[in-house]
Batch of 3 targets.
Target 1
Amino acid sequence: MDQNNYKMKVSELVEKLGLKVHSGESNLDKEVWGGYVSDLLSDVMGNAGEGMVWITLQTHKNIMAIASLKELAAVILVRDLLPDDDTAASSEAEGIPVLGTSLRTFDIAGKLYEILKNNNLPQGS
Amino acid sequence: MKFEYDIEGGNFSRAGFASSEVKKKLRQLNVDIQIVRRIVVALYEAEVNVVAHAWYGKMTVDIDEEKILLILDDEGPGIEDIDLAMKEGFSTASPEVREMGFGAGMGLPNIKKNVDTLKITSEPGKGTRVEMITYMKGGKNEKS
């Protein structure tokens, strides 16, 4: 994925991937150009980039500190996991949505990759 | 210009707060966004190290036209073997901390990658001091 590619709004991802919006509903207009998948916080800190969606199974408040410091567009929690209460509160305060899916990490990552990739194909192909 | 922030050992719900305040300050001061993004990675890791391992710490940020000096001073168990601590994958974090996704042994390597100079001094049983410098011009930021 290339940062210069067309960017998709978080709200479009929610719609196309059938995601739940756990928190940060008023901030779905952020733009996404790629994603990062990891449950190790330092890995995300060191390797994710601004404007990415982060797919994880971590639900505690520290994920929002990372999402905010890294200027991520949104966090997707897998396997119907729910954000902790203070995570949801922090998501609202930071303006970064926490989304959810019933899918497992591999499957949601594949779907996310596919729609971002297809989004970047030339028109008519 | 100098700023100071307290860090509470063991309080994970506040981990990242000081780093976030520094980020806001640096943005207000119009520091280059790429420099800010790199510093934030190093600062957060250093802050989390204090939260995860020490009892109390202080973050000091000293900015002039040439460079940004970041110092984290803590009162805590200290580091017995700094070379070993620097090794990617080495960690002394507790199982609880690891379960949260911390303690992967990536923190200090992350710091090293994102600042121009890193100096760690420690006295076991007393505490640790982490000093980092990022240059406004000519540092790693311009080479990457």
Target 2
Amino acid sequence: MITHGTDKKQSSVLKSISKMTFLPAVTLFILFVILNIFITRRFLTSGFMIGFFTANAPLVLIAIGVSVVLIGGGIDISLGAITCLVNVVFISLVGNGWSFGSAAIVGLVIALVCGVINGIIVGFFRVPPLLATFATTSVFGGIALWIMPTPGGSAPMGLINWYNSLFLGLPAPIFIIVAALLIWVAIKYSPIRIWLYSMGRDEKKAYMSAVPVKWTQLFMYSFSGLLAGIGALCLTGSIGSGDPLAGLPLALSAIAACVIGGISLSGGKGSILGSVFGALFLGLVITTVLSAKINPFYQDFFSGVIILVGVIGATLLSRKFMNKA
Amino acid sequence: MSRNGLSLKGLTNLKTFFPSIIASVALLIIGQILSPGFADISNIGNLLTVASILAIATIGQALIITSGGEGIDMSLGAIMSMGALIGPMISKGQSGRIILMIAALVLIGGIIGFINGFGSQIIKIPPLVMTLIMASVVNGLTLGYTNGQPSVTIPPALLGVGKRVFGPVRVLLIIAILAIVLMELVLRKTKFGKLVYLVGSNRNAAKLAGTNVNIVAIASYVLGGIIAALAGMFLVGYAGSGQLQMANDYTLLSIAAVVIGGTKLTGGKGTLVGGALGAIVLVLLTSILVAIGMPAGVRSLIQGIILLVILVILYIKAPKLRQ
């Protein structure tokens, strides 16, 4: 694939990248699409597709962001809190008469700064990432709750209308997802990709092989922070208002999506594509449970059980696949 | 390394307790200055009672983290909430059925713990993800079982956990101390306890020594699930009323208490006494912030910053990459 991977170690890293770890997630996704064609009314209509992508684009974007961190051997559970923070800042600024564009830019800068803070604490202070981002969740989420203690405000109608519409014949959120994937494609053709995978496999060996570990860590947490910021703007377009808690569950759902998508929490394995399908699968689970006319009080239980079965299936499938490869 | 040496290492290393003790005393003094009456003996009694519930929950979390393999229980709060809501429903508010309630909670908590353990150890789903999904399953189960409107009539005998025994000491504090002493003895003196430390500190060595690593780890999750369900029962007994997801904060609080108590998240090390001290520090901090009228957002912000400072101090001595 890439010609400069001549030395043995690097080629083994490349080999692990090119294994098709995303297959279980794609399989689950296709199974649930087929299932929903039968049980969900108007499943293949553009109206449903707009609703589906509107609701699930934030999760997909955050899953893309956290994938990069997981591949690099880290973890980031603060992305939900960053999403909340950007959402309430954006709504507050718009409420104070700021234009959509400038409020969005401030929101994205804040998301990037949050990511940089995570990156500094993990990369330079060497705090284990789970604990570091656990603490920053409390910090970022606290600021969000401070700015806006209860849900309120409203998003500009221009954003809501565009976000919930067809653009060039496709649901608009798809273009945002594609744009995020294009950023990743650009990264793929830089050395950062090899650095990420080799760091995820063995941080010390990567350091000794002259990978700039600290800076790559700073990069990956900043990247995931920025994607959480984009996800927050999508969430705002979806819920149409500010909510200091709405984004919180996304952090952990995104990690579940990555694991379904074949990314290993111990790092160095998996692909972004898998996470995207993992996140779309999670979205389909909710659609399925809603369509299956289950007692509303048991909907959460059944969606939890389906996700559990999906993760077990994905784990067993990928292990079988890995052993063969 | 003899077994004896291994088991005594944690207890004799009293140094790990000093930061929490110093922090507790400092927080008490700060609290008294900011809000006179904070360090009154009766208020200390109340604070210790609240800390008792967190300390009991922390026992289960500490056990699972100590058993290693990236062990962590993100479903602890969900199991606690379940125990708090489903427990009283099973008892139908009658003190006579309290034994039945405890038996049912032990069974349900044990089953959930077993599923957590089986999924993480046998199927090899990362514990973080496994227990996270179980949290949504358990929360969903509670929601379904209670039809969204928990009708919690608490048996009078269970309300007794909040009663004063002597002076400011309430029943819950005594239960927590007994539970910690009992579990410390199990961890230090029984074969199971020693195996938990062995498995947590070095899985491969444990395997080579002929230990069934999976069974020890699964047993930790089962015990953790049982303890969480019972902690939920104590919580509702003290609170006197229940609401959905009332204990969900305890997941992250218990992890923070374990970390402040000096347990490394990598497993194989740590003491329950440390976790209990961590619980006291967290409860003191929260109470001070509530007492001086901080809004919830600022409380969370300050807690986060303090936790960050603790973490940076703890890990600044960690081996550098080049070592």
Target 3
Amino acid sequence: MSSIFDLPTGMNRRHFMSHLAGAAAMAAPATAFTNTLLANATDLKKRHKAAILLWMGGGPSTMDIWDLKPGAPTGGQFKQISTSADGIAICEHMPLMAKQMHHMSIVRSMSTREADHTRGRYYMHTGYVPNPNVEHPGYGSVIAHELAEQVSDLEIPPFVSVGSGSVGPGFLGMTWAPFVVDSNGNVRNLDMGIDPTRLDQRLRMLETIENKFIGEKRGGSAEDHKKVIDKTVKLMTSKQMEAFKVMKEPKDVQEKYGTTGFGRGCLLARRLVEAGVPFVEVDLGGWDMHADIFPTLADRKLPELDKAMGALVSDLADRGMLDDTAIIWMGEFSRTPNINGGGGRDHWARSWSMVVGGAGFKRGVVVGETSSDGKEVVTEPYSSQDVMASVLKSLGISLETTFTAKNGRPMKIANSGKVIKELFT
Amino acid sequence: MISGLMWTGKTSPREPAARVWPLRLAGWLTLLGGMTVTAGVQAAGPAEDEHFGVPQVKFINDQIAAGWVDGGLKPSDQATDGEWCRRVYLDVVGRIPTLVELKAFVADPSSTKRPDLVDHLLGEDFVDDYARHWTDVWTTVLIGRDVENEMVSRAGMRQYLRRSFSKNIPYDRFVEELVTATGANANRKNVDGFNGAANFLSGKMEENGIQATAKTAQIFLGLQVQCTQCHNHPFNKGKQNQFWELNAFFRQVRALRRFDGTRDIQWIELVDEDFAGESGNAEEAELYYELRNGLMKVAYPVFVDGTEISRTGYVPRTLEGGEKIGAHRRQELADLMKASPLMPKAIVNRMWGHFLGYGFTRPVDDLGDHNPPSHPELLDGLAERFREQSFDLKELIRWIVLSRPYSLSSKASKGNQRDDPSLGEKPKFTHFYLRQMRAEDLYESLLTATEADEARGGEEAAKKKDEWLSQFIIAFGTDEGDDSTTFNGSIPQVLMMFNGDLIKQATNTGKGGFLDRVAKSDMKNPAKITTLYQSALARSPSAKEISAANDMLAARKGDAIGALQDIWWAILNSNEFIINH
């Protein structure tokens, strides 16, 4: 009985029992527990690379945010304002981000072909168009997979998705699936309510049943089930779970990010990256504005985005984390330059913008250009693959990395996308 | 004296749980008495060429076997009776079999016991279970997991579906009722003309019914047209005009918000009204859509196969002189769909995917030319036979579950381990592919395994289940209301299975509960453990498992019910429990 479950990281029985002891301590007064955590804070704060994807579900109108065309018939209602980056102007409703643009860069020459939500979400997350025969891993799974080694003492999932399901792990398997939480960082059903020794005994019984079924060669999902149980046990008993308690942040910090779901999600992302999580996705949905787009953006959506994103960028910079943390802002596509009869904009993938910053990215630059009405990219167009390749490069992940899909077919990381060179030189 | 039997005399009619129970326990004990611990695991099964006299089953078997020959593959052995029984209960009625049901099947010596069980599950005795299960499945298909808003009544949708599946109405009529529904979507005391079927379209009529168009094509015809709303599809033959010509069929529908004296929407009424066209000429009621280059084009109602209908936007009526004018565009659409070969293909593919784990195409609702099926002749042939059988869903189910591919073991063998669709290959159905239970099936199966099924049935129970299910739902923040679930084998699911209220309830040791009843029965310890295994896994424990269970009993220092609780927890958390195999 030397091991509970054969964890990939070599978790042994003693280690496990010490965790259980730690978990039992959770029942102790909060102060005692906080003290223990603080004692460990230095260990957790090792330097590591990470990425935060700010996912704009529904398809935000980027020509109303990052690439304005004032005066053009397609230009909409907003003015632009200058920013902390020389020569870069953005929407007037993004004043806080305007002060952070020297940390960020805009790619204004995105041109893609997927203008359906499901397909676009898949394509922008994976670098591949949907294919009935293979499921590709998304950003979170790829980056978590590549960076997992640098945080070998990580006991919480390496890919956390806040407020959205993101895109799954595809052929990398369920162990690289996103761990989905709401923006309050609530993780349900964490409390086991029985003593650690007894849980240990239950797990041994469970292992006997799991192994029997796996041994019968019925398919990969039997084994995946066991791997996910390993991860769950690790997480349930980990002190690192404290990172999810976003409500424990000082009130003024919470105010700075905004008391919105997205604001808390961004703050949670910072805490998770601090704790060693290599990939966090934070979702801000509701950009699918087929009608009344301008009041919706000005009154509701952009203030929420501006406050949270502005706070995240400045906070990461202040804490010295920005040089190791890539930030990616994008949605599945953008919206039509033409304004429709309902005062909205429809789906549009041909010419749009996305934003990156931090990690190895060059800051404060604009890449590419669209025509005066915003309908065409007039410089070299960039794709989802190119963005993915660039993000991986900014994190020091080799673009020569090749995965083997389950069928044995080699799959180049980021679908052989080209690095967007203006973001680096 | 067995405690369960002692209760019989004391049973009060006001205690329904206790009323049912003694019969059950008596039933098992009799069965257990006459059985060895290996019951349920013997590999018997019907002969290879068995088709139970059903020609459609023979057709499936022949077609699938031909694929094996082509691929140089050998099928796995037959599943055990216990495995097959568990699978057919899960797939047909959405829950695992009770111990009594399992044992009755395993012990049945008849050579026709498989078709007999299928008849039974599709018959009167199971009509409530059957209707509940297919209502769950179709509610998700038609309105998604997360829809309960002012435009859609989940309860109304379910009420319609429960009635449809209880009566086994023919599939073509089912489609017609959904596509042509009019009336109030919610069943309220003061509302006339309730029609739960209206909920399929009531929440999809925004922006001239774009979602109504896309979902109707996707669900009932297997055509993915949503991308062609804005442009010709780059990869398949879908053209932008087809989307808008199909959309034209929905231009007479209005989803009217009804207020009932308050400011909140109380219900939605779907009506058909004259459509005057975008330039006001109802005789030639047209719509315009925008091409990518900004030009506008005109569209009239044309079905996906090119059939045009009248361009009139008037709903049917008789003029004073007796002349009849107008056309009911949705009715015309329903008629064209019913006559289309795509409609039976789409449902056959969906049902095959439901039972075999993979459809003939991936995803099951994309039958476009760019996505060739794994078994085209089988798909076409089954679709034709389904039409000949008057679109009887129960018949279709019977053919599939009695077929050889459905009866194979999920254990891969040397001759077929490369047949693994999770690797991206087209499925050859040489063995039964594993898949996880749906969250709804898990919920119902836990009720079954813990004999708590008096908590089942009716709208109240459905709402309670919805509440539980809501913890897994993730919305994507788009206008299409698409969603996903974390009940997908990831950590939140395992946490729920470890520590959630439902599991706490299923493993409780309270008086009169499942574990208490097993603990207090006269069975010896191995028989008690066997009871737990068979209740959840439809098999008996192995020698190793018995010894692990004995360790558990020792660890609990004679606290028998505590040990049973630990073992039960482990069984319910196992891969074998949650994976339909």
